[in-house]
Design brief:
- The complex is a heterodimer of chains A (about 350) and B (about 350).
- With about 350 residues, chain A is mainly alpha-helical.
- In chain A, the strands form two sheets. A two-stranded antiparallel sheet of chain A has the order 1-2. In chain A, strands 3-4 form a two-stranded antiparallel sheet.
- The model of chain A has no long low-confidence stretch (mean pLDDT about 80).
- With about 350 residues, chain B is mainly alpha-helical.
- Helices cover about 70% and strands about 0% of the residues of chain B.
- The radius of gyration of chain B is 25 Å and the shape is globular.
- The C terminus of chain B is likely disordered.
- Classes of the chains: A mainly alpha (about 350), B mainly alpha (about 350).
- At the A-B interface, helix 5, helix 6, helix 9, helix 11 and helix 13 of A face helix 1, helix 5, helix 6, helix 10 and helix 11 of B.
Chain lengths: ~350, ~350
């Protein structure tokens, strides 16, 4: 009996199919439940912001920058979630400074309440703010990746004086007190002129902020690329490529580049999360996107002030809701991106000797 | 290469870096249009051109930019960082008096140092054992919960977290002081507490209690970042064959963790921490502002946000101190890693450090 089984397996060996690294990674990703959940959340957040925001704005009949004077009480404290407010942008006040009786006015719904003293729709501002924050995150990482890839490959491939120069420059850039320089740039004339560059696609200031963040984070990918190339250059397959007459550029493109993808992909996801957090920091330093455009950083600044004009939280004038919901949106996005990054890392890991 | 030679070479590079930093900052400032002379004329409604020229002559800012730059470097060599323009005042007829930048920046560095050292200690005490502890039970409920909490801390900006802590523990509950810095040695100037009392404080106890909330705020964000890194690093070590070998020999789990995992997982995390010193000092800026600590970030913001323009000597002074700290921290980290990890030979420092992440 057992002999026949052995014979069977010998007769019909299970076919071994060669799978490309990409196929292996995809198969692993498909089995990774946490990773899939993170992917779903990330897609929902992105779609919710980029498509959901304009759709919801149409549905509700007001935009993210429309102020509703009835959405704040007499001490400018914004209303809480799920409140119908009269949809008028200006209102008469009576002798005592109270708003005139709103009965009979058409009403509109503020799903998460109002954002602050101006009484704008918090949900819409969070969603539209998400567009800004996520664009800044993606754009900043793209900029950092491009610069880092070029600088890192140059340093790694050419070595010698070029490597020395680039490494010293990286060290210089890394020892710059980033936030301090952001303040400097943000409050200077150059910074405010940069705000107006939109390329016709982005919100005002998005490109400027992304550029600043990208310019101050590129050395991380540069370092990864340089170290990877230096380690890989000693491996046999590079020697083999050199022997078969491949040039530097060809070795870089077809032999080394595939090995750069996993660490860079892992860095990029973390980088997007860090860039989003950076945008918040930049807004606090008044160097962020220009008002009234909303961003997650700006939404928090409304309540907590900035280092230049700090404000103490006062429950008489302020509400905790804007902070809670904005922080929730940030939390959800960061968690999704981080978990996605970890899943990517798990999927892309190369198992040696198996 | 000998160790002394290595340290010496690093110092030469470091001085070059600091020189480059000063140069870059000086010429960025030159490119920004404002009139430093106005610092001397802050009370004057509509200063005339003569008054402005006079003020600039007193500040030395009437000279060509290159001369100013060389003068500044000359002062720097002798340890003179110049005067703070913001504090400048006319003395009698001809002269001017002002705070010198050196002592000003040094006292600010003391404040920031207190914040960073205490917060950093808190960070190390939580993140390093915490990361190893989580790695040992990766995938458990505690692991997932801790990582979620860490991400929540990461998503809460220090300015928000600091204000919340101040509001709840400082003002509502009154458990700890909500603000002000108390010097470790000596007494502070008298200040008004939020309850309306005039107080003066100083000494180790006041110093520590007044810094508890800033330390926690400062550590929260960094713990969130480095707990994950430490955990990932420890997980990498746990997968190594020598850990399996130790297990199969019957070495107790506790000793594996302390003897094998911890020392091998630490170097990349230390390297990461050192590389992030610039960013860490940035976080300190938010904490200082929230709690009214007059540290480097606070001094810097005041210099940048003057009504006139930029208080250039103060800005460069702060950048020199911060840059020097970053350089020294990086050097210290590299030496610490060499001491922690015998595999790292100094010559191959860069590659091994890099390949660890």
């Amino acid at each position: 009996m057992s002999e026949t089984v052995v014979a069977d397996t010998l007769d019909a060996p299970t076919p071994i199919r060669a799978r490309s690294p990409r196929a292996i990674a995809l198969a692993r990703l498909r089995r990774d439940r946490v990773g899939l959940a993170a992917l779903v959340v990330a897609v929902v957040v992105v779609l919710g912001c980029f498509l959901g925001a304009p759709a919801l704005s149409r549905l509700l009949g007001h935009g993210p920058n429309d102020p509703f004077p009835y959405a704040v009480d007499s001490s400018t404290r914004p209303v809480g979630p799920w409140t119908w407010v009269p949809s008028v942008s200006s209102a008469q006040t009576d002798d005592s400074g109270e708003l005139a009786d709103p009965t009979g006015l058409p009403r509109t719904l503020l799903v998460l309440g109002a954002d602050g003293a101006l009484g704008r729709d918090l949900l819409l501002r969070i969603l539209y703010g998400g567009i800004v924050s996520i664009t800044v995150g993606l754009l900043a990482v793209a900029i950092a990746l491009v610069i880092g890839l070029v600088a890192g490959s140059l340093a790694g491939m050419l070595g010698g004086a070029v490597d020395g120069a680039i490494s010293r420059f990286t060290e210089l850039a890394m020892s710059l007190p980033v936030l301090f320089l952001l303040v400097l740039v943000g409050s200077s004339a150059v910074g405010s002129r940069m705000q107006d560059v939109t390329l016709g696609v982005f919100n005002q200031g998005v490109l400027a902020v992304a550029l600043i963040i990208g310019l101050f984070t590129w050395f991380y990918p540069a370092r990864i690329v340089r170290v990877q190339i230096q380690v890989l250059r000693r491996r046999e397959f590079v020697d083999a490529a050199i022997v078969s007459g491949a040039g530097r550029w060809r070795i870089l493109r077809s032999h080394l580049a595939p090995h750069l993808v996993p660490p860079l992909a892992a860095w990029a996801t973390t980088g997007v999360a860090i860039a989003i957090l950076f945008e918040i920091g930049v807004s606090f330093l008044n160097a962020g996107v220009r008002l009234p455009t909303s961003s997650w950083g700006r939404l928090l600044t409304d309540t907590w002030g900035s280092p230049l004009s700090p404000s103490r939280f006062n429950p008489v004038y302020q509400s905790m809701w804007p902070t809670v919901f904005t922080s929730l949106a940030i939390f959800l996005t960061i968690v999704a991106i981080y978990e996605l990054g970890e899943a990517l890392q798990r999927a892309l890991v190369v198992e040696h000797g198996r | 290469m000998s160790l002394a030679g290595y340290v010496l070479r690093r110092f030469v590079v470091a001085i070059g870096l600091l020189f480059a930093l000063v140069t870059v900052t000086f010429w960025i400032d030159q490119a920004i249009p404002y009139d430093p002379g106005l610092y001397l004329l802050q009370g004057v409604q509509h200063p005339t051109d003569e008054q402005l020229a006079e003020a600039n002559r007193l500040l030395g800012t009437d000279k060509p930019a290159l001369t100013q730059y060389l003068d500044y470097l000359k002062g720097l060599v002798t340890g003179d960082l110049g005067i703070s323009w913001e504090t400048v005042e006319r003395d009698r007829e001809e002269g001017i008096v002002a705070e010198t930048v050196g002592p000003m920046v040094l006292s600010a560095a003391g404040v920031t140092g207190s914040l960073v050292l205490g917060g950093g200690l808190l960070l190390l005490v939580i993140a390093i054992p915490g990361g190893v502890w989580l790695a040992a039970r990766a995938g458990s409920f505690a692991d997932h919960a801790a990582l979620l909490v860490a991400l929540a801390a990461l998503s809460t900006h220090p300015l928000v977290l600091g204000n919340l802590l101040q509001l709840v523990f400082g003002e509502r509950l009154g458990w700890v002081p909500a603000d002000t810095y108390c010097p470790l040695i000596g007494q502070s100037e008298e200040y008004l507490t939020f309850t309306g009392l005039v107080e003066s404080c100083g000494g180790p106890v006041d110093w520590a209690t007044h810094l508890i909330l800033p330390w926690v705020t400062f550590a929260a964000l960094l713990v969130a970042l480095h707990l994950r890194q430490m955990r990932a690093s420890a997980l990498g070590v746990l997968a190594q064959p020598y850990v399996q070998a130790a297990r199969s020999k019957g070495v107790p789990e506790r000793r594996i963790m302390n003897g094998h995992v911890l020392p091998n997982a630490l170097p990349p995390v230390v390297a990461g921490l050192a590389a992030d010193v610039g960013a860490i000092l940035g976080v300190a800026l938010y904490v200082e502002v929230t709690f009214g600590l007059q540290g480097l970030g606070y001094v810097f913001l005041r210099a940048v946000e003057g009504t006139v323009g930029f208080d250039r000597p103060v800005i460069i002074g702060v950048i020199i101190v911060v840059g020097a700290t970053v350089v020294v921290a990086n050097l210290a980290a590299d030496l610490a890693i060499a001491a922690l990890d015998p595999r790292v030979r100094l010559q191959e420092r860069g590659e091994l450090l890099g390949s660890a992440d």
